[in-house]
Amino acid sequence: MSDTLLQSTLRELRALLLRPRLWLVFALVVGLFVLTGPFGTYERLAFPTRLGYWLVLHAVTWACALTSISFFDAALGKRLPSRMSRMLVGAAFAALPVGLAITVINFALLMRPLNLERIVENALVSLPISIAFCLLTWLSLSGSDQADPEAAPGTAEPPALDGARAASIADAPAAQAREAGTGRPDLPDRPALLDRLPANKRGTLIRLEVQDHYVLAVTSRGTDLLLMRLGDAINETGNDTGQQIHRSHWVSDAGVRKIIRQGGKNPRLAVETVDGQTLPVSRSQLAEVRARWADRMDGA
């Protein structure tokens, strides 16, 4: 397993574990099993023992399933466009380790046989349960807490914009229209990309940045992670509203504060954005950046 795949798996796993809805579903499922006592545990185990048994069993089997789901979600990101499909593959492969875990726990706590036949039997029983668990996990990802940047691992949160700066960014299109001498600003259509963001973060788009399998969208009202390719995200930014400056970065016209000349043997350019980031410009984009933002060159 490559370091990149391992890091992506850990990132997906941590993102899942930080979903409050997932823990709520876990608590409800454990509570249901404790109260109903399936597989003879109601008659055989007293309530405290039954609580401990189902808590341990679900904690271990959910850990196996979540790890498998996270691994295949990261590993198949470029092969299967549907996240649900990737998660279902992971759930199917999780049946074997889940079956093994159940067999070992039953052997340790209930003195049941520990052999290959019992492992296979528990794995077959676990397969439909893993699929159902995958669907519960998918449902727990829906809603406003999905791809929360504060919870997302491996993401460096850009500095928060103060009120005055955010307002100036939001007013940038109107200001540019006034400078052009138009009586009423001809504002561009709102980028379709903003519809993917939570309502409270749909401000003026500043920049996009690649973060593993995600795209970090930065607006004047905050940031959010989107599970998509950078090229697809750029296609949803509107008609010629910015420039891709690097294979990992796109910056909107409203998001550029100034263009910095970096000296040395091989002079380069960098873009300083209104959210305080300094981003590199690739050599293939130098001419386009100079032409597009000539008035914002450092010292111009």
TrEMBL record:
Annotated TM spans: 21-39, 51-76, 88-111
Keywords: DNA-binding, Membrane, Transmembrane, Transmembrane helix
One Gene Ontology term of the molecular function aspect: DNA binding
Protein name as it appears in the record: DNA-binding protein
Cited Pfam families: LytTR
Region (Disordered): 172-194
Occurrences of domain HTH LytTR-type (ranges): 205-295
InterPro entries according to UniProt: LytTR_DNA-bd_dom (IPR007492)
